[in-house]
Structure formats: structure tokens, C-alpha cells
Amino acid sequence: MSRNFNDNNPAADIAAKVAQNVKQELTKNTIEIDGVSYKIDLLNAEDGLDLWENLMKVILPSVGTGLDSMQHDPIIDGSPTTFTEAMSHLSNRLDGQTLKRVSISLLTDMEVNGSKVNWSDHFKGNYGTWRKVVKFALKENFSSFFEDGWVDGVQDLMTMVRPVMGSSSAE
After folding, report:
1. Deepest in the core among 18, 37, 86, 124, taking most CB within 10 A?
2. Number of domains in the chain
């Protein structure tokens, strides 16, 4: 007579927990897109901090442009900053290698359906899926920085970069 997991069986409970842990470990840092499984490795702290700093050099000035436009006074400042102007500012910050460096950092050890692949060959002509996998890899690597929300994350970043900006004393 076989027992099922609903019986009061400690061995079965342990086996179920082990199986669940194995499943979680196998699917950790994994996303499925159109029936294809992509597994990324998290960056070590040094590489993650280097990538994060490079991304902030590109992104933060444009975020600042957007935030400035929200505090815009048309009488004093003239016409407001548009989304197009903010995106133009962002694109001017790109150096022609940014997306390639991000991809190399995040996708070098990527597995597709359980096998290591060359990310550059794999995403040839498939930039929509590339975008989804890079977005997932960025989220997996850096979302904890924004656990308390985007604004707190940016404020914390500003405090780390320029401690004076985090000070509440008036000058």
C-alpha cells in the first residue's frame, strides 16, 4: 500500500521539502520566455558594483533631467523639458559600448534550456528576447537596492556618491 503526501508521514514531508528545495535551486535566477528557459548567474559583488556604477553614469543624469522637469516653472525656466529631451540626453550619454558591456557582464555565463550558450550568437536577430533577458538579469542583480522604493534607492545612491547631498543642514 503506497502512502500519499496527505498522510501524516514525516519521511514523506521531508522528501517533499527536499524536492521543493531542489526545484527552487534549479529554477533560481531563471526565466522562461516563449517556452525557452534562460538561467543567469548573479554577478559577484565587485563586478556588480562596477556595472552598477557604469549604469548610473549613464542613467542618473537623465533621471535628474526628468525630475527637474517636474519642478519646472515656465515663467522662470522657459519651456519645460520634454520626454524627448530627457531621452535625447540619455542617448547622448551612451558611448556605443554600453549595451554590449552590460550584456557581457550579465549574460556571459547564461544557460539556455540547461546548456551554456554564446549569448551573442544566441540573440542574433532576436533582440526582443535579449531585452527581456537583460531586464530580468538586471532585476535579479539589482532590485534589492530598491527594496524601499525607487526614490529611497536613488536618495541612498546620492548619499553614497556625494555625502553632502544626504545632509539636512542648510548652508
Report:
1. 86
2. 2
